[in-house]
Amino acid sequence: MSELGGGESDRNAETADTAGTTGTAGTAGTAGTAGVDGSDGARSPLVLLEEFRRRNASAAVVDVLYVFTTAFLATLAVRGTRPAMIAALPLVTFLYFAWKSSRAFFLVNLAAVGATVAATEAGLLPL
């Protein structure tokens, strides 16, 4: 009777040990590593697109407005010394929060800043 009880407790311990690790990386196949390309931890564009599609519409609109505001601050920053001083702190703050949000969102904001600065210097933007 003690052997049967011991065997059952060993089996229960094995089940308890593996039950919590099903989704962790390396123990159950692809469940914990979905979207990771290679060793640098970068996500594939397909996974990023899926994450964007799972978000609700209002979150996507907020992200677009966020990028628009960052671009507006970039146009303000290249207009002269005083506008640059006004735009510096909000622009750095927006880029910091984009960095903390995700790497892809930060890169989108940097691309928006770069494109806006180039368009402003070329005289394509009305502001």
Describe what this molecule looks like in 3D:
With 127 residues, this protein is mainly α. The protein has 2 domains: 1-34; 45-127, no CATH class. It has 5 helices and 2 strands, in the order αββαααα. The chain has a two-stranded antiparallel sheet. Helix 4 runs antiparallel to helix 5 (103-121). It is elongated, with a radius of gyration of 25 Å. The termini are far apart. Residues 8-39 have low confidence and may be disordered.
In a few lines, what is going on in this structure?
This protein is mainly alpha-helical. Strand 1 and strand 2 (42-43) form a beta hairpin.
List keywords for this structure.
mainly alpha
How are the secondary structure elements laid out?
Elements: H1 2-19, E1 36-37, E2 42-43, H2 45-54, H3 57-77, H4 81-101, H5 103-121
Helix pairs in contact: 3-4, 3-5, 4-5
Transmembrane segments: 57-77, 83-99, 106-125
Keywords: Membrane, Transmembrane, Transmembrane helix
Biased composition (Low complexity): 15-41
Helix percent reads over 70%
Identify the overall geometry: elongated
Oligomerization state of this entry?
Answer: single chain
Termini gap? 85 Å
| Largest beta-sheet characterization | 2 strands, antiparallel
Count of β-strands: 2
Kindly provide the radius of gyration, computed on alpha-carbon positions and rounded to a whole number of angstroms. Answer: 25 Å
Poorly predicted sequence stretches spanning 5 or more consecutive residues: 8-39
Mean pLDDT: 74
The number of distinct helices, counting runs of at least 4 residues, comes to 5
SSE run: HEEHHHH
- The largest sheet has its strands arranged as 1-2
Number of domains: 2
Instruction: Classify the secondary structure makeup into a structural class.
Output: mainly alpha
DSSP strand (E) fraction? Answer: under 5%
Keywords: Membrane, Transmembrane, Transmembrane helix
Region (Disordered): 1-41
Biased composition (Low complexity): 15-41
Transmembrane segments: 57-77, 83-99, 106-125
